[in-house]
Amino acid sequence: MTAARVAGPPTGLVSVVVVTYDTLEETLAALATVAAGFTTTPHELVVVDNGTDGTGAAVRAALPDACVVEAGENLGFARAVNLGVAHARGDGVLLLNPDTRVLPGALQRLVDFAGAHPGHGLYGGRTLRSDGATDPSSCWGAPSLWSLTCFALGLTTAFHRSRLWDPESLGRWERDTVREVPVVTGCLLFAPRPIWDALGGLDEAFFLYGEDADLSARARRAGLRPVVVPDATIVHTVGGSTASSGFKLCMVMAGKTTLLRRTWRRAPAGVGVWLLAAGAGLRAMLETRRGRRGHWDVVWRRRADWLPGYPHARGALFGPPARDGVGAAP
Prior knowledge:
It comes from Xylanimonas ulmi. Residues 15-135 form the Glycosyltransferase 2-like domain. The structure is a single chain. The protein has 330 residues and is an alpha/beta fold. The chain is built from 15 helices and twelve strands. Strands 1, 2, 3, 4, 5, 6, 7, 9, 11 and 12 form a ten-stranded mixed sheet that branches. The chain has a two-stranded antiparallel ribbon with strand order 8-10. Strand 2 (43-49), helix 4 (55-62) and strand 3 (67-70) form a beta-alpha-beta unit. 46% of the residues are buried.
């Protein structure tokens, strides 16, 4: 696949795919803002319900035109997104988190930019916190041996958002200018359907976290240039579908180790995984010295669960899929 063969302006219907896991109220609030995000482009809502709190039924009642897919178990993010896209009819795929609020016209501006600049392939926006401050998680730098060494030595924490010592943060850039980026995250991501299909969607080896970095890496290898469009702005409450920060960090680390093993050669990947473990251990030790057991202590104590990556981490952290068709809760 090359960018020239798959690139093209999105036309017609855009499919907004939302994956939810026991976040009924947040999901309904997010979906209520989607329509105002468009001005001229028609769209459809495709909601994949991984949970058991009745979100699917509530969405059907509130938005009868939405396509609701009830997974029957917790499929994780990648499988659920791919399932939603399989039910989508649009010429473009737009991933949106259920813990977001779309600002008026934001999605239209994202789609319009993609139409005018088709060579990028993957398009992200700018995310804000509820207080209006920039939430940098709409995009990231790619991991490297240097960035992981900085993590292992604690430099990414000591010099947070430093371009040199915390390179994956992309520095102090406020996501307020158009910029090509290594990783567009799945909280807000648009791709024309031909590009999505040519890339093969999300890699279902990932359960939660890391799949968007993998997609961005494959896009870059195909000659595409993922980009952030600051006029496409949403409000994002981070991590609505995970129960605790310690648990979430375990999932993030599992995603990172999986990403390294699937995208790097064996020897560098092994070094990278070791550096991740070293960084977790350092932070856990510092928490203990301060007289408290915090989130990194949880990550360190459960390192046997996340270090192997997926699929091992899925069962170790979430438990095996339930046999009665309902996924295990975190």
